[in-house]
Amino acid sequence: MSSLNNIIETSQSVIGPCCADFAVEYALLVKDKFYVAYYDAEHCITVASRAPSDKNWLISHPQGEWLEDKKRYMHQTDFDSHNYLTLALDNQGHLHLSGNMHKDKMVWFRSTQAYDIHSLVQQPMTGERENSATYPLFFNGRSGELLFRYRDGESGNGDDIYNRWNDRHQCWQRLLEQPLLSGQGLRNAYARLPVFGPDDQWHMIWMWRDTPHCETNHHLSYARSPDLLNWYRHDGQPLPLPITLNDGDIVDPAPVGQGLINMSQHLGFDSHGRAVITWHRYDDAGRSQAWIARSQGRHWRVNQLSDWHFRWDFKGMGSIAPDVILSAAHPERGQLVVRFQLSDGRSGAWEVDEDTLTVTRTRSDPALPLPPDYYQCLQRLHPQAAVQIIPELYQSAPRHFLRWEALPIQRDIASGFHLPPSQLSVISLTADTVNKD
Predict the structure, then answer these.
(1) Distance, CA of 27 to CA of 391 (rounded, Å)
(2) pLDDT at 15
(3) How confident is the model at residue 368 (pLDDT cuts 50, 70, 90)?
(4) What distance in Å separates the CA atoms of residue 79 and residue 82, rounded to the nearest whole number?
């Protein structure tokens, strides 16, 4: 008698020491080379690169300007988990780096030579509305043009700004002359990047927040666009720009304190190319639940996916770890599939009927993309240290991951513990083989 067992083959490439005394997301970009942006043991921005055929990594330490209000340089960071790093390549092969910002002056570096990490130079983008920037994100337009989104302002009072890289003039310009989403000085939007769907439309979801306290999220919202310039409700009615709370297309009118959290909102598509939204909020009994929605005529069809008996009771300011992680919905063998992972170790997936959005089966799928050994702490840096795994950027099915060990998210406050540096590595999936016993 024989059974089939999937064995995941991997390879590991050690980059070097990195910061371990707080958790923040690093960046892995895989193009002609591997490009990695991270903080070294001294909390300084560091960039590494390696060709696939090479064994050794090149290391660079880009230098930024002095920030008088923070009493540190732009390339140095503190303990704020908002200060993630991100990377992109433009069409000429020049590397772009941004991050290390939480209501800070814009941090943006670009290499003066193609594919060269040693020529990264810090400079302004457009020079306007760049003194209180957070949440930088690169993405590509439908023609491959490089785009960039960030928040100007702060949590509870901010606008979403979009830029476009001009290949001919080698500079950033506004994609829109006004913000795409505006809190009108009263709130801010927590939005996912626009997603280009199988219907040749861009789709975007967001929720509003009234204060820096995470429990003040409310009103899950939606918009679509053919070109990122003109935006519409799901029923085709045009939306004036900037989009505000009063003008938005509301998917879930959940008020403040009802469990909407900007860490668990996702947009996917069913087999007919229709946008499907998944998110977290409380049910009528105040328990945490996962929800799914799709437009239906002039309204939104909403259904509850989970039947959980706990409450993720998040409150306050600063970065927090997620108790509930949800995936975007995607079609799989005639059904929609939504995956979940809980802080108590449970994980699985719902199979959902595409027509009714009701759950037909709950699976106990493992949530780990890498073999279990990679999730075990090996360095013994501290009893509270945990393994950090970050997938490569811009890939729906990543095959390369960053791995290191660090203290967990702690609301952006220094722990007071002194930790030695961790070891940063790239883990690559090399093959999936099937063995017969």
Answers:
(1) 8
(2) 98
(3) confident
(4) 9
| Structure tokens that stand for 164 in this block | 């476009």
Distance set, CA 100 to CA 39, 82, 286, 298, 376 (Å): 10, 8, 36, 42, 28
Encoding tokens for residue 415? 């722990």
pLDDT digits (tens, 9 = 90+) for 157-204: 999 999 999 999 999 999 999 999 999 999 999 999 999 999 999 999
Distance CA 10, CA 399 (A): 9
pLDDT tens digit string along 227-239?
999 999 999 999 9
Q: Is 316 exposed, middle or buried (0-12, 13-18, 19+ CB in 10 A)?
A: exposed
Are the beta carbons of 274 and 294 closer than 8 angstroms? yes
Rounded Cα gap, residues 262 and 223, in angstroms: 17
CA dihedral 215, 216, 220, 225 (to 10 degrees): -120
Cβ neighbors of 401 (< 8 A, separation 6 or more) are: 28, 369, 370, 389, 390, 391, 392, 426, 427, 428
In which region does residue 228 sit, left (phi positive, over 0), alpha (psi from -120 to 50) or beta (all else)? left
Q: What is the DSSP string of 61-98?
A: -----EETTTTEETTB--S-TT--EEEEE-TT--EEEE
Residue with tokens 């660090």: 406
